[in-house]
Amino acid sequence: MSATAQSIDTKSAAGEQELTDGFHLIIDALKLNGINTLYAVPGIPITDFLRMSQAEGLRVLSFRHEQNAGYAASIAGYLTKQPGVCITVSAPGFLNGLTALAHATTNCFPMILISGSSEREVVDLQQGDYEEMDQLAIAKPLCKAAYRILHAADIGIGIARAIRAAVSGRPGGVYLDLPAKLFGQVMNAAAGAKSLVKVIDPAPAQFPSKDSVKRALDVLKSAKRPLIILGKGAAYAQADEAIKTFVEKSGVPFLPMSMAKGLLPDTHPQCAGAARSTVLKDSDVVVMIGARLNWLLSHGKGKNWGDAPKKFIQIDIEPKEMDSNVEIAAPVVGDIGSCVSALLAEMGGSWPAPPAEWPKAVAAKREENVAKMAPRLMNNNVPMDYHGALGVLRTIVKERPDAMLVNEGANTLDLARGIIDVYQPRKRIDVGTWGIMGIGMGYAIAAAVETGKPVLAVEGDSAFGFSGMEIETICRYKLPVCIVIFNNDGIYRGTDVNAVSSDPATTVFVKGARYDKMMEAFGGVGVNATSPDELRRAVNAAMDSGKPTLINAVIDPAAGSESGRIGNLNPQSALKKK
Ligand code: ADP
Ligand code: TZD
Ligand code: MG
Fold first, then answer.
1. Positive or negative CA dihedral for 173, 178, 183, 188?
2. What are phi and psi of 109, to 5 degrees?
3. Looking at residue 437, what DSSP letter applies?
4. Which of 106, 188, 402, 496 has CB atoms 3.0–4.6 Å from 505's, for a disulfide?
C-alpha cells in the first residue's frame, strides 16, 4: 500500500475526514474531462465500478463481447474527437478488447482501453492469480501509449495522460491498466478532488510552417491535372467548411476515401468518385488531405497510378507519414483545420482554376460510368443481386441523408461503397485501414448512441457473424438500428463445393439461413426480404419506426466475386503457373 493511502487510512479510522476511493476518483476524472459514455463488459474487478458509473450519471453500454465494446469506443472517438472509452475485466476480457485498441491505433481513432488487472505482486512472480496476465507489457506494442496507475492519488494525472495521448498529434489507442487494488484504495476526499486534472486543450492546433504552405501552393499552381484526395483524417478533423471552401476555390476534382465520402456530397460536381481509375492514372499533382498512401491507394505507385510523373502534396499531422511510400514534393505538417486555413489564406482572392479540359474530362468519365451503372441499380431480379438491392438502399440514403451508414463485408462492402452516395460528413463508417470484419454491431451501437441518428448497417452475412450477438444489446437499449444482411450463403459466394469430402467448402454457410429469426428472439423486428420491393418497404419502415430491425436480404449465392474488388491480393500458386 502506498504511503499516501496508509496515512489516510489512519485518519479515516479516527473518523476525522471525508474519504473517497479509486472507483469514484476514476469516475470523477472521466466526467471532469467530458467523458460521459463507457462501452463495457462487466466482471471482476469492474462490476461495481460500472454500477457506480451508472449511479453517477455516466451512460454505460454493456456489451456481450469486449471486442464489440472496443470497436464501439473506437468509432465513438472518431465521431466525437474525444477518446471513446472501453472497459474490460482482466486477461481474457483485456485480450478481447485489445484487437479493437490496435484497430483504433491503426485507423488513427482516439480510444482508451481501461482494463482491470490482477494483483501485481502475484502476476509478476507468476504465481497463478485469477486471470493473471502482464497486460501492460502485452498492450504496449499494439497501441500509441500504455500506462498503469498504482496509487489513487495518481488517478487524475493518469487519466489526463491517457486522454492527451489518445487525441493529441496523430490520434490513436491508449491502454490504461488499473490493478484491482486501486479501485478500493481510499484517500482524503478533498485531496482526491484536488488531484484530478482537467486536460487543457488536449489536441492543440498545430500550424504548418509558412514555407511549407507556400511550397504546396507553388506545386499546385504548376499542375495541369490536379487531384485532391480526402481521407478519413480529413473527416475526423471536423474542418468541414474549410475543406469545402478549399476544394471549391481550387476548382480541383476530389476523390473521397471511403470514410471521407460525404465530406462534400458524392453528388458534388467536382466529385471524382465515379472516375477513380481515370483520376489516379491521369493526374499530375495530387493533394492528400488526411489520407495515407497505403495499400488502399496502391502505395502511390504501380499501374493504378499510370506512367505520367506525379507530384504529391501531403497534409498530415504526423511528420513521419511523409515519404512513407513515395517522395512527397510538398509536405505540409499540421492539423488539417490549420493547414487548410493557411492554404486558403495564402491563395488570396483569386486562384487560377486548373486548365478546363481536365475537370471536363473527369466529369465526362464520371457521367459515363454513372450512366452505365444506372440500369443495373434498378433491376428487379429475384433472387436479388447486389446491384438491385443496393439500388434500393442508395435511394433510401438519398432520402435520409442524416442517417448513419455502417458497412462491412467483401462484395457487400466494395459494391455499397461505390453505389451508395453519402451527403454529409462522417456518416459512413466501415472496415477502415485493415479491412477488418466484425466492426458492424459495435459501430452501429456507438453511432446510434453518439449521434442520436437512425443507423443503417449494411452487412455481409459473414461480416455480420463476427459481432452478431450484439443484436441483443441493440434490442436491450432499444437503439434505432436497421441491419440489412446481404445473405448470399457465405463468404464472397455461396456456391463453393468441397471436392473431396462431405464437409462443406470453407467459404459457404448453411443455405437459406434466416438471420431475421435471431432478431425476433430478442423482441426486435425480423423481416425476410426476397425482392427489391420487399427490401425497400422493410428498410423504410425500420428507419421510420426506429425499432431495432434485422432484414435478411436474400441475395443470389452466385452473384458475388472472390474477395470482392480486391481479388488481386490473393496469392497465386506457383505450381498452377507451371
Ligand atoms: P484513409 O483510410 O481514409 O485513406 P488514413 O487513415 O489512411 O485515411 O489516413 C488518415 C491520416 O489522417 C493519418 O495519416 C493521420 O495522421 C491523419 N490525421 C488524423 N487526424 C488529423 C488531423 N486532425 N490533422 C491532420 N492529420 C490528421
Ligand atoms: N477476419 C477478419 C477479422 N477480417 C477479415 N477481413 C477476414 C477475416 C477475411 N474476410 C474478408 O476480408 S471479407 C470476409 C472475410 C471473412 C467476409 C466476406 O463475406 P461477406 O460478404 O458475407 O461478409 P460478401 O458479400 O459475401 O462478399
Ligand atoms: Mg456473404
1. negative
2. -105, 135
3. S
4. 496
What burial letters (b/e) apply to 262-274, b meaning 16+ CB within 10 Å? bbbbbebebbbbb
C-alpha cell at position 32: 471532469
Residues with Cβ within 8 Å of 410's Cβ and at least 6 positions away in sequence, in order, are 460, 462, 463, 491, 492, 560, 563, 564
From residue 247, alpha-carbon distances to 254, 269, 316 in Å are 7, 11, 17
Q: What is the pLDDT of residues 178-231, one digit of tens each?
A: 999 999 999 999 999 999 999 999 999 999 999 999 999 999 999 999 999 999
DSSP strands (E only) in 98-248: 111-117, 145-148, 173-179, 186-188, 226-230
Asked if residue 173 lies in contact with residue 143, where contact means CB atoms within 8 angstroms, the answer is: yes
Contact (Cβ atoms closer than 8 angstroms) between residue 231 and residue 292: yes
Rounded distance between C-alpha atoms, residue 86 and residue 175, angstroms: 10
pLDDT tier, 13 (very low <50, low <70, confident <90, very high otherwise):
low
Q: State mean pLDDT over 91-98.
A: 98
In the reported structure, the alpha carbon of residue 449 is separated from the centroid of ligand 1 by a whole-number distance in angstroms of 24
Q: Tally the C-alpha atoms within 13 A of residue 553's C-alpha that lie toward its C-beta.
A: 33
Task: For cell 420491393, name the residue.
Answer: 533
Any bridge partners for residue 229, and if so which?
255, 288
Rg (CA), the chain: 26
In testing the pocket of ligand 2, which one of 390, 458, 487, 491 has its CB within 8 Å of the most ligand atoms? 491
Q: Given pLDDT bands bounded at 50, 70 and 90, which one contains residue 557?
A: very high
From the CA of 11, how far away is ligand 3's center (Å)? Answer: 64
The Cα 490–Cα 499 span in angstroms is 17
The Cα–Cα gap between 354 and 393 comes to 35
**Ligand 1: which atom is nearest the Cα of residue 258?**
3
Among 176, 105, 167, 85, smallest CA distance to 449 is for 85
Ligand nearest to the CA of 230: 1
- Of 257, 550, 563, give the one whose Cα is nearest residue 412: 563
Segment 342-350 long-range contacts (CB within 8 Å, at least 24 positions apart) = 342/207, 342/208, 342/210, 342/213, 343/213, 343/216, 343/217, 343/246, 344/242, 344/245, 344/246, 344/249, 346/213, 346/214, 346/217, 347/217, 347/249, 347/250
The binding-site residues of ligand 1, defined as CB within 6 angstroms of any ligand atom, are 107-108, 170-171, 231-233, 236-237, 257, 259-260, 290-292, 294, 296, 316-318, 321, 335-336, 433
The mean pLDDT of 506-517, rounded to a whole number, is 98
pLDDT tens figures, 277-296: 999 999 999 999 999 999 99
In angstroms, the CA 68 to CA 49 distance is 20
Query: Which atom of ligand 1 is nearest to 316's Cα?
Result: 26
At residue 574, the pLDDT reads 85
pLDDT value of residue 415: 98
Are 259 and 430 spatial neighbours (Cβ–Cβ below 8 Å)? yes
